Structures are given as structure tokens and as C-alpha cells.
Amino acid sequence: MGNEDRLNFDTKVVHGSKGYEEVTGAVSFPIYQSATFRHPGLYKTTGYDYSRLQNPTREELENTIAILENGSRGFAFSSGMAAVSTVIKLFRPGDNIIVSDDLYGGTYRLFEEIYGTFGITFTYVDTSNLKLVENEIKTNTSAFFIETPTNPMMKVTDIAEIAWIAKSKGIVLIVDNTFLTPYYQRPLELGADIIIHSGTKYLSGHNDTLAGFIVANDKSIIEKIQLIQKSEGAVLAPFDSWLLLRGIKTLAIRLDKQQQNALQVARWLKAHKKVENVYYIGLEDHSGY
After folding, report:
1. Catalytic: 32?
2. pLDDT per residue over 86-110, tens digit each?
3. Alpha carbon separation from 199 to 79, 144, 171, 206, 282 (Å, rounded)
């Protein structure tokens, strides 16, 4: 077990992957604002060539998100939708994907108006009801794509149970973990194959940058995502990568406070005579509490 495995999560978000820049000792990881990198000599390399392929600042961020999600490899993209789009490219015309019915609108638009025209079909199911999920599995179902909690109604899917179904059928399980982040939920540990994030939200935390992430363990999946990322180039820029590294340092304390505030607001709304329903997972009467 490495030192990073023994660290408390609150410490991991502060330290990141390397925790500092090795040459100078800078504890704020530098912004390598360079598109290209000079080779020391013929047939020699520093490990970096071109920032579309890899950049030291982005690499530090990608390694950090992999550590936080307990995954083998992380990928940083220019937006959450770029990350989702990359994952869907793992599939082919004729494939069917079962999707949470209460889905972020941008993801629904991407599926229906873009990838639906390429012959991939999407079946929308209340994935909090696993019987419904099983009933919708077809011979060409290649993946489950779930949000849990969903955006915006906060429906909850049992990740471990749906992962068992997926593995028994040879189906890939993709989990959008934007809402809870790895601070509250780590889907790979529960059997998921791929994790997606909109890093724009809680991971960044400062409303100053767009970002997306993919984290995976399977070597074949990682190689395919790596090929798509470097070929299409929807990568996160060095400065934006640095902003995410900065934002992640305060993830634990921010989320604890935000959850306290959200629960207080939810309880206030629930007691208000003009409010009919409050959909908040922290309320005891919520179906996914």
C-alpha cells in the first residue's frame, strides 16, 4: 500500500498527485503554458511533445482526479459535455444505451440530437428501480449511463446492485458523479467501469472555468479514451487545469458547508405553506434518503 492510499481524503485533495513541482519545490503546481516542448537531443524526450497529447499541469490534475476516485487513469477535458461525448464514442451504430430518465438536459440533447443520428439508441428508465432496468435490457444493450443522484430530481440508483446486473450481462456501467464528487461517492469502488464529471461544478467550486473528467480502471477503455482525447483535442488548457487543482484543494471543506446550507434551506422550504414538494436527498422522507 502506497503512502497515497493511507492518506485521509481531506489530505489527498490538498496534496494532489505530486503535491509540488520537483525541480523548484513549488507547492503550487506551475502552469506550463506551452503548446510545444523542446527535446534535449536526437531520440531523447522529456516525456512531453505537444500539449494536445499531454501537458504537465493537466497531467497533475488528471493524476489527482484518478487518486481521488481510486481509479487507474484520469482524463481532463474542456467541458463536462466533451467528456460525455468522448465516452459515447466508445460505442457503435446499432448499440443501445440505457439511461437515467431524469437526466441533465445538456446530456439528453447530446444523446438525442447528436448521437441519435449516428444510429445509437437511448432508452430512458427510472434506474432507481432495478426491475425496470432489467426489463429494458436488449440484446444490443451495451451500456448503462446513470446519474445518481439525478439532476434535478435527485433520484438515487444503487450503484453496487446495478453494477452486478451490468457485469452479469457484459454491459459497461457509466456513472456521472458530478453531484456527489469523490468526496461523498466513489463509483469505481462499487463496481462502475467509467466515471464522468462536470468539473465546472463542485470540483472547481469557483465558477471561473469549464472542465470535464473521465476516470477508469480498465486498460482497454483507458487506451480508447486516450486515443479519442489526443485525436480530437478537447483537452483542458494549462491555466484551467491549474484553476481546478486550486479548487480541488478546498473540496472537502466546501462540500461539508454546502451540504449543511442546502439541508437548512430544504427544511425551511419544506415547512413553507406555499411549497408543495421539496426534492432533496438529505430529507428523511425522500425516496433515496
Report:
1. no
2. 999 999 999 999 999 999 999 999 9
3. 7, 21, 26, 11, 23
- Based on the residue annotation, tell me whether 89 is a catalytic residue of this protein: no
Amino acid found at 199: G
Q: Which residue in 12, 58, 104, 193 is the catalytic one?
A: 104
Residue 75, in any domain of the structure: yes
The reply to whether 40 falls in a domain is yes
The CATH number covering residue 133 comes to: 3.40.640.10
- pLDDT at position 4, please? 46
108 belongs to the catalytic site = no
**Averaged pLDDT, 214-222:** 98
The dihedral sign for the CA sequence 225, 231, 236, 237:
positive
Domain-embedded: residue 281: no
- CA proximity to 58, closest of 192, 229, 208: 229
Number of domains in the chain: 1
Q: Give the tens place of pLDDT for each residue, 3-42.
A: 444 579 999 999 899 988 888 999 999 999 999 999 999 9
Distance set, CA 144 to CA 174, 194, 218, 243 (Å): 6, 10, 16, 32
Q: Can you tell me which residue has the cell 481510486?
A: 70
pLDDT tens digits for range 45-88: 999 999 999 999 999 999 999 999 999 999 999 999 999 999 99
Grid cell listed for 21: 513541482
Catalytic residue, chosen from 48, 52, 218, 267, is: 52
User: What are the pLDDT digits (tens) for 143-184?
Assistant: 999 999 999 999 999 999 999 999 999 999 999 999 999 999
- Supply the range of the domain harboring residue 41: 3-248
In a domain, 289, yes or no: no
